Amino acid sequence: MCGIFGYVGNRKAGKILLEGLKRLEYRGYDSMGIAVIENDELRVIKDVGKIDEINKKLHLENVGGRIGISHTRWATHGGVTRINAHPHVSCDESIAVVHNGIIENYQQLKKELSEKGHAFKSQTDTEIIPHMLEEFYKKTKDPLKAVLETVKKLKGSFAFLVLFKDYPDRILVARYKSPLVIGVGDGEAFVASDVPAFLKYTNKVIFLDEMEVAVVKRDGVEVYDGISGKRKEKEVVEVDWNLEQAEKAGYPHFMIKEIMEQKESLLRVLGQDENIMKAVEMLKHANKIFVVAAGTSYHAGLVARYWFVKLAGVDLNVIVASEFPHFKNLVDKNSVVIAISQSGETADVLEAVRESKKRDAKVIAVVNVMGSTLMRLADLSLLINAGPEICVVATKSYTSQLSLLGLLAHAFVGKLEEGKEKLKEMQKKVKEFLENENNLKLAEDLAENLKDKQHIFLIGRELSYVTALEGALKIKEVSYIHAEGFAGGELKHGTLALIEDGIPCIAISPLDKTRDEILSNAMEIKARGGKIIGISEENNEVFDEFIKVPKLNGNVFHPIMMIIPIQLVSYYLAVKRGYDPDKPRNLAKSVTVK
Ligand code: F6R
What homologous superfamily is domain 252-435 in, according to CATH? Predict the structure, then answer.
């Protein structure tokens, strides 16, 4: 849940570290810190707050040195304090560490190290790492050996970077179950939690695998197996993301930029027929098909379930990743597990995948981030190619997941080409909708009317039921207004009791067979004083307010179109309520802890 970034080269470290951290801020933003080696001194600067605020106070961009490591924190162990912020240092302050992940056996290790005389300052699990490195470094006088010995002792998950004051030419890094990538530049190198953090400087990447340790210098990277200590050859991969995708490009926030990008991003799932057909083969041979995912990606899985039932009469067992342990006994060697994840780093999803692999099931990843842990674990990966999604809130990745899963469902029944045509048609509708400024204005006006409400309900049936669930999640996470999505028919089994004068309810109502029933459900709400906001191709007297989407002609990809007005309303709600939509409170983009 934290972001880490390291640099070694000829540029001024403070500025580069700050820039890298800014790009990783979506991963955590309660405190931050940097460590550099300048004039043979190890200098640590850290504080509580957002990066810009801290920079204003401490002028980090002016910090010198040509090597440094840095961290933006999302607290897990220990409160949000300056002392708990990273980097953490050894007793003699010659070793500095930034870490993402959780060291599960830290209490035991802390006890052992304390008995050896190490003094701890913070409440974090991380602080044991520099102290343990100090122990091993004293014995071996070799920074690599110290790291190799240390990783053997750690249980849990980690991606960490180390600066040794005695070795101002290198960053030592290690990873296990937490993301870490190395950027190889010309006479410089970068280490970060994700690729966009250093994309401005290089797109040449070394993806570290589990339990690998690396020595990163400006003129080369050496990778070692963390268990055997043996040197490994690693491929340098060129990633075809560009910097523009990782910048705001004139938009005030990434969220609106990424919503608008859906005009084009949807079609970037095309061009992988071969892999889609491989996935179909795997699914056809499966006795049971599971889908595991969390949050928005879970909603994509739910839509896929409706599609598979609708098109193929085949059910998918869609399980929230954190609940998967209670279903794992059902998975066997004849099962296929589809793991959906934008980041490919969500801890619960990875855990479910590892468990499934232990049971010899086959795993298909539907993933955005190339080189992510999920992609490396899966038997087959289908890339959604949405491009970097920087805003914490998932928007374009959701519609790209739907695009890909929709194609998969069509391919499963031998209709991949038909699926592609329908997707292309839907992309045109999305483009038409987003290019019409009136629609943005309408969403903004609606947000103005909703911004002081305490509750918002959303209803839909069949595929639109899932749109209601996803819409509610969007509203909650950026605007902090309580929102709940329901299957239209379910509301009267309890929640209708909450409807009173003026309570807004968004009715998602495409012109399909669910139309009449959802309008009746809307009537029931209206009769109790609720205000109905229709999202539909056609107005209706039950709607008090109405967002018109283009005619969808019964296209089953409609969940892609129908979520977009709600994404927009959510965005404007956040802005009007004075919140930063890119960084909702308490949330992090990749939930790399369980
Ligand atoms: C919602 C959101 C989260 C993620 C969830 C899974 O807007 O961003 O609910 O969808 O944390 O993340 P991934 O897809 O990276 O596994």
Answer: Glucose-6-phosphate isomerase like protein; domain 1 (3.40.50.10490)
